[in-house]
Amino acid sequence: MTKFIIRILILSISLLHPIVNAQIKKIGVPFITNYSPKTYKAASENCDLIQDSKGMMFFANHFGIMQFDGVRWSIVTQPENRSMVRSLAIDKKDKIYVGAQGDFGYAVQLPNGQYKYTSLVKLLPVSFRNFGDVLHTVVRNNEVTFFSNEAIFIYKQNKIKILQSPSKFDEFFETKKAIYVSDNAKGLLKLENDALIAIPNSTQFIGMKIRKILETKEGLVILTQKNGLFKYQNNELKPFVTKVDALLKQNQISTAIFLSGGYFGIGTRQSGLIVLDSGGNLIQHVNKQMGLQNEYVTNLKVDVAGNLWVTLKEGISLIQISSPLSKILDASNSETKIYCSKIYQNKLYIATDNGVFWMDWDDYKNGQHKNVHFQRISGMSENVWNIDVFGNSLLAFEKNGIFEIKGNSAQLLAKTDGTWKGVIVPNHPDLLLVGGYTGLYLLKKINSFWVFQHKIKGFEESSRVIETDTAGNIWIAHGYKGIYKLKFNKTFDAVSNVQFYNQEAGFPSSLFLNTFKINNQILFGTTKGVYKQDAASKKMIPDPVFRKYLGMQNHIRLLKVDNQNNIWYVSGENTGRMSQKASGNFDVVELPFRKLRYLYVPGFENIQTTASGDVFFGTQEGLIHYSALKSKNYQFKYKAVISEVKCIFPKDSLLFSSRYDVLPTNIKSEEKVFCPDLAYSNNALHFSFAALCYDEADATRYEYWLEGFEPKWSEWSLQTEKEYTNLPENEYVFHVRAKNIYDVVSEETVFKFEVLPPWYRTSWAYILYFALFGVLIYAIIKYQKNLAERDREQLILNQEKQLLRNRAELNEQKLALEQENMAIMKENLEATINLKNAKVASNTVNLIHLNKILLSIKELISQIDKKNDSNTNFSLLTKINRIIDHELQGDQHWNEFEEIFNQLHDNFMQRLKTSFPELTPRDMRLCAYLRMNFNTKEIAPLLGISVRGVEDTRYRIRKKLQLPSDANITEFILNF
Known about the structure:
Elements: H1 2-15, H2 17-20, E1 32-35, H3 37-40, E2 46-51, E3 57-61, E4 64-68, E5 73-77, E6 85-90, E7 96-100, E8 103-109, E9 115-119, E10 134-140, E11 143-148, E12 152-156, E13 159-163, E14 169-174, E15 179-183, E16 187-192, E17 195-198, E18 210-215, E19 220-224, E20 229-233, E21 236-240, H4 245-251, E22 253-259, E23 263-268, E24 273-276, E25 282-286, E26 297-302, E27 308-312, E28 316-319, E29 325-327, E30 338-344, E31 347-352, E32 355-360, H5 361-365, E33 375-376, E34 384-390, E35 393-398, E36 401-406, E37 409-415, E38 419-425, E39 428-436, E40 439-446, E41 449-456, E42 465-468, E43 474-478, E44 482-488, E45 495-501, E46 514-518, E47 521-526, E48 529-533, E49 540-542, H6 544-550, E50 556-561, E51 567-571, E52 574-580, E53 586-589, E54 606-609, E55 615-619, E56 622-626, E57 640-647, E58 653-657, E59 677-678, E60 685-691, E61 701-707, E62 721-724, E63 730-739, E64 749-755, H7 763-862, H8 874-889, H9 891-904, H10 908-915, H11 921-931, H12 936-943, H13 947-961, H14 969-975
Parallel strand pairs: 59-64
Antiparallel strand pairs: 1-28, 2-3, 3-4, 4-5, 6-7, 7-8, 8-9, 10-11, 11-12, 12-13, 14-15, 15-16, 16-17, 18-19, 19-20, 20-21, 22-23, 23-24, 24-25, 26-27, 27-28, 29-56, 30-31, 31-32, 32-33, 34-35, 35-36, 36-37, 38-39, 39-40, 40-41, 42-43, 43-44, 44-45, 46-47, 47-48, 48-49, 50-51, 51-52, 52-53, ...
Helix pairs in contact: 7-8, 7-9, 7-12, 11-13, 11-14, 12-13
């Protein structure tokens, strides 16, 4: 029957989902993120805000248009007259229209990230250019309306139409279907077809100081500054009575917004934000005491994720009105660590590090926040670790012992050295087992009162985590040792049996073990999933159900069952809920609880549930409430953006940035692709990026990839900046994408750029290198040719040398042969000469001998006396004597001698005659005989003269030869 009721309840909730999704939580205060002027570093006041198609937030700040990308704030542009920006609007093409003080125009983003402002005042006649603040800017039906108290300017097709009033305009309102203008003289007017038309009974609105008009199905809701709310239906104006009329009138309405689900968000000047439902009932009141940083609200807008942005006189706040989580705050309590919470007798109790506090839960739940406060339970001021109801008693377990809470005070039941929690002993509802710092204690219920009995003997370990099973065993988890299984004796004063389980028993580790009781089964939380004890082996093994849904990689810090049999868990840093379906499988829900990451007190994670569906989480930042009736879209799409790109070497120089006036704005906005070409000296880049998701933006993780340099995406990290240095020349694409706390991955964004090669690796350089290479190749070829030519010439020369050497060798051989021949010839010649010398000598000797004989004969003839010898034939003797003289002259013999002599003595006779032509033939013959080294006596017969005659001849020859007196004529003749 219970399961059937649960199924009907789940079905009802699913059918109500579209309705409850639009609801705004009434319990608790939404999560608020405050951005102070110190954070965004601009003027404190912001008058308006818009969000572009990418999700980027823009604010009308007194310093200009301020941009926020989830990580960084920056002023992106200013009006031409540098005045404060009062209003903003944006069209479908993300063109931002700006209303400022004495100026209005539009701003567009250029490819390099800069926003270029263009004033439209120049389109006005000079006489209309003197006006004050442009308080509202509206884009509607392809035209833009700029509102000031002096005039309304309608910009369409690059022309401006001006609407004026005899008196000044008071305020300007845009609803879903129409535009209204409050005129100080004519009342409420409607802007139609570029003309102002009075609505029925318009004059009744004169002097009302209307601050906002909201359109509902029933008509218009008029919000005035000091007179509260009115309804304008069927041309009649009636007061709209709410539960907070006094609050609204006292604190003055400044602005309002129509929220989904029919809620009204009302900003006040003195009391922050007030949210009413369509019936005028108070849903939320968020003021400075509830976490808003300033009470004066200037504007309200809802972003695409359902978050409410609140601009203030000082600062900006983000209120997460669409979240099912809220903080239980009141005007008195401050942030404190919550160890446990409990609802008992319509009161909410919280156990903190500073005692126990309580408040009336029904009143708080019904929206009576102002009159409901946490009140301290007197008697406890230390760390209270646990509170729970046992029978009709609310007990608290504190550092100093065990207390019972009654009314607004606590009564000490037992003073100990510290207690953690208590559990009822199985099958003994009158016995309460209390885990303490140094063991276990027993209390017994006597006459409806819990009475301390004694400390249980036999176990002295810290017992912070205690569970009991159906067999009466006590399971105690010690975070640094292991699991203890205890059995008591029958009198419950001592431990009779202790079993210990740690890593050796099958756990993945002995550290950080917990024990839980789920559906009467004892389970164990470990650093690697959920374990249970195997009934047969008694070993600890992974639980198959939790293994399937929670895995085996996370530290299981908490498991708890609620009244609807949902299992709540804290696994690792994730909190979740397991709901069993009719099929027996489980639905696991984690996304609504991602905001709880890192909020728990480590080791003291606690979740409390109620029968009515309330869920409380005790954290370091107070008590957080969850309502399953409030749903949120966690899968909305968002984008990652590149905020800034700059070169960091040799000095910082921006390439892409939206920051005001840091880059040129004279480039064409039509150039959609921005792909800078960077010199090689600028090959070190710094990228700044963000995600346009504003829910827990600090927890958003990023991954990036520089295509062309890195092979794959980086690991996810919280880093919002990345630097690259020494990038080689190449075309690059920097990719970045984000993952928010709900694990939704954003659309990636890219930045393309190219690092140009250094001058020595440019195309021109390569052409030069190619030319130089060609010249080098030509030079090498030329050199090789020259070298080959030289080699060829050298080869020819070598061949010639070899030929010459061969010839020389041949010549040497020939010369040798010739020398041999010469030697032979010489020998032959010498032999011939010797022969001729011998012949000459022989002939000379014979001649000498003959001449001597002839001379002897001649002498004998001369001795014959012609007178005394008459018988002698003197004529014959005379003839004989002449013959002898003729022979002595020896011309015939001399010619033969001269010929042989010249052959032997290198033409001596001819040379001598040539040198000394005065020499006579006799002189020549004497010289020849001297050449042959004949002495005077040998020469005399040859010449047919006496020795004396030879001496005389030699003397004459000396004179002809012009020899000095000391010269030896023989030596001269021999050496000539």
